[in-house]
Structure formats: structure tokens, C-alpha cells
């Protein structure tokens, strides 16, 4: 792992554990095993470091969610693929959930940065939603509402499981979650 990647990983660890506000550059440098000056060779400011971390985790999430995406499959199969893989990505590491939760809520991540970071997966999901509407599979409502119902629901369930282990009396089945999301938006 190169030094830049070490710094991003250290930043991710600390933000997930302590939050952005409690993550000074000195702590990042110590956790990355380098001097604070080294960080500034790769990132001009803490804000740039946070932005690059956001772009990195968003890229990882999009790549994971779209890996082996079956473009010729049915709407429902594509829906299950993207959202199932998204939920798996969150479930791979509690750090993913904490980090995304912190970064999405941060004022350091402006709307333009969010759009850039999520453009690959967003483009594919919007194509899927539009195709589903054209074939009368889902409700013909605003895409942002549909995204909030699916993306938001899955993220919040993953976050609840992480924050309160044992909250659900039985293991949460991804298929059940996907069925619930589909039922919420389908006609």
C-alpha cells in the first residue's frame, strides 16, 4: 500500500471511530505512521483529504454494487443486484457504515462533490428506475423519492444493526429487505 493510500485508510479508520470533528491531522499522521508534513505532500488541506476519502469510498461502493451487473436481466433482477450488492458492501465492514454516515452528513461534502462521487452508480440506478417506470413495474413518482425509499431504507437498517447488535431477533435476510423495498415502490 502506498503512502497516499495509508493516509486515506488511517483517515477512514479515525473518522469511523471518532467522527470528522475529532480527527485532527496530527492523529491521522500518527495512525498512518507518518509525519503531518507527509500528509500535506498528498493533500493540500484536511478538506481535500476528506473529499478524496469520500470519492474513494464512493467509488468502492459503486464498483462493488455494479460488479457483474446483469444489464440484460429483468428489471427486478437488476434491482436486486444493485441494492443487494449495496447492502452487502455496507455489511462487509462496520467501518463502511460509520464512514459513509459521517461523510454524507458532513458540510465538507458539497452537493457537487456528492454528485461527482455517486455519478456512476446514480446513472445506472436512474436508468433502471426509468426502465421500470416505462414498463409499469414501479410507481411513476420522482426518482429521488424512489431512491430514498430503497437506498435510505437499506442504509438505515444496516446502520441500526451496527449500532444495536441483536436489535433484530432473527438474522436479517437480504432477500426479505429487497422484497420490502420492491414492494414499497412497485405497482
How confident overall, as mean pLDDT?
94
Q: SS-based structural class?
A: mainly alpha
CATH superfamily label of the largest domain: Tetracycline Repressor, domain 2
From the N-terminal CA to the C-terminal CA, the straight-line distance is 48 Å
What number of domains?
Answer: 2
Write the layout of secondary structure elements.
Layout: H1 3-18, H2 25-32, H3 36-42, H4 46-66, H5 75-92, H6 94-105, H7 111-134, H8 143-163, H9 174-185
Helix pairs in contact: 1-2, 1-4, 1-6, 4-5, 4-6, 4-7, 5-6, 5-7, 5-8, 5-9, 6-8, 8-9
How would you characterize this protein structure?
- With 187 residues, this protein is mainly alpha-helical.
- It folds into two domains: 1-43, Orthogonal Bundle (Arc Repressor Mutant, subunit A); 50-185, Tetracycline Repressor, domain 2 (Orthogonal Bundle), CATH 1.10.357.
- It has nine helices and no strands.
- Helix 5 (75-92) packs antiparallel against helix 7 and helix 8 packs antiparallel against helix 9.
- The chain starts with a helix and ends with a helix.
- The mean pLDDT is 94.
Which short descriptors sum up this protein?
187 residues, mainly alpha, Arc Repressor Mutant, subunit A, Tetracycline Repressor, domain 2, 2 domains, 74% helix
Amino acid at each position: 500500500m502506498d503512502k497516499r493510500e495509508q493516509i486515506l485508510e488511517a483517515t477512514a479508520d479515525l473518522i469511523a471511530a471518532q467522527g470528522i470533528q475529532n480527527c485532527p491531522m496530527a492523529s491521522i499522521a500518527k495512525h498512518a505512521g507518518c509525519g503531518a508534513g507527509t500528509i500535506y505532500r498528498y493533500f493540500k488541506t484536511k478538506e481535500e483529504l476528506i473529499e478524496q476519502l469520500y470519492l474513494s469510498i464512493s467509488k468502492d461502493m459503486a464498483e462493488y454494487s455494479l460488479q457483474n451487473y446483469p444489464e440484460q436481466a429483468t428489471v427486478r433482477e437488476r434491482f436486486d443486484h444493485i441494492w443487494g450488492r449495496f447492502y452487502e458492501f455496507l455489511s462487509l465492514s462496520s467501518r463502511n457504515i460509520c464512514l459513509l454516515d459521517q461523510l454524507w452528513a458532513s458540510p465538507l461534502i458539497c452537493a457537487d462533490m456528492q454528485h461527482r462521487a455517486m455519478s456512476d452508480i446514480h446513472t445506472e440506478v436512474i436508468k433502471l428506475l426509468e426502465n421500470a417506470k416505462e414498463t409499469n413495474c414501479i410507481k411513476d413518482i420522482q426518482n429521488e423519492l424512489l431512491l430514498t425509499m430503497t437506498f435510505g431504507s437499506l442504509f438505515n437498517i444496516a446502520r441500526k444493526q451496527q449500532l444495536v447488535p441483536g436489535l433484530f431477533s432473527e438474522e436479517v435476510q437480504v432477500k426479505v429487505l429487497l422484497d420490502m423495498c420492491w414492494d414499497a415502490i412497485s405497482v
